[in-house]
Amino acid sequence: MGERLIFHIDVNSAFLSWEAAKRVAEGEPDLRLIPSCIGGDPKKRTGIVVAKSIPAKKYGVTTGEAMATAIRKCPNMVCVPPDFKLYTRCSRAFKAICQEYTPVMESFSIDEVFLDMTGMGLIYPDPVATATEIKNRIRDELGFTVNVGVAENKLCAKMASDFEKPDKVHTLFPEEIEKKMWPLPVGDLFTCGKSSAVRLINAGIRTIGDLAHADPNLLKNLLGEKSGVHLYRYANGLDDSPVTDVREEAKGYSAETTVEEDLVSLEQINKLLLAQADVVAARMRADNGRCNCVQISYRTLDWKNRSHQRKLKESTDVTEIIYEAAEKLMAEGWNREPLRLVGLAVTDIDRDGFEQMSFLDTERKDKLKKLDVAIDSIRGKFGNASVQRASTIDTGKQVGRKHKAQMEEKG
């Protein structure tokens, strides 16, 4: 059996690229060529920058910063609200092309996949040519660009795809690690979080090469045994994790968020869970469904995926009830490790039109259902960004255990 061959395919500035491709197809200016971003309401200066164009980056605009701060840096920036239906369509379209090349594809996030190309040499004898073909097909057929990393394992493929962008193919084979990866700042190593990078730099370990040659015992003392061993292996390009072909639930709705900086508090995580509950519940209501089970999932810095789920006492389509279940699951299951991905799913869907009601909280549930109906109606008329729950946009407000859903109309 030959060496493993893994592709990592990553959409360049996904949300902004997808919005830009749609607008270009409609004859409008290309957002990728001007200072622009996907984010909150520029009139009210709420929310954060979710994605930004390269021209916006030149003004110092960064992903995750407050819209008010970004607009002060770049007053003429074009700000566009998120469009999750568009993102879902584009994600499925690019993954469908990728799936044509191998039977084993792992959806790593909404805009990333791993392809296991091991043993495909008779069909695709030139890996770089095949990666370039996939890249060009996505660009030509769908109107947006991707980077493709080609390597012998998932780590190196992921690192390679993050090299020069956009619309590039890069390799990172074992013999290339010293030249291509070791000179990079230690913080650029995949899964090396901000706090870990600071500790390493303070100890004189400034590059990935420094980390690869460091004393493993020193790393264990600095970062803890598990993280120290993990980052030492990664710095040396070692990773044996498989590409896992996990199919989506046939009957369920889910949302997930990958962040650039570690999630280290329940406050941060709960804000994401509330936004995700809002998305999945709205999609489920649009299909006249109600769920009987809520599941949360998260990914730690060592790529370990964990999930917890809870059966509900009765089926529901109410955003707040779904959020409360997810919030409790996270509080009970998370052991305070830094996270890079958080997801929420609702499963075991009923579509029979019958809903069991408890006499104990009928009044509260009725108020929450009316709130959901009002929000769905406004969004149906004026778009997804026309109304949001206050706690998902006000980063200064703590999300409490007894969070009360509120609405804030947007200009």
Mean pLDDT: 83
Beta-strand level of the residues, as a percent range? 15-25%
Total E-strand runs: 14
State Rg: 22 Å
Summarize this, please?
With 411 residues, the chain is α+β, with helices and mostly antiparallel strands.
Task: Annotate the secondary structure layout.
Blueprint: E1 6-11, H1 14-25, E2 36-39, E3 49-52, H2 54-57, H3 67-73, E4 78-80, H4 84-99, E5 105-109, E6 112-116, H5 127-142, E7 146-151, H6 154-161, E8 169-172, H7 177-180, H8 194-202, H9 208-212, H10 216-223, H11 225-235, E9 252-263, H12 266-286, E10 290-300, E11 305-316, H13 319-333, E12 339-350, H14 362-382, E13 387-389, H15 390-393, E14 407-409
Helix pairs in contact: 4-5, 10-11, 12-13
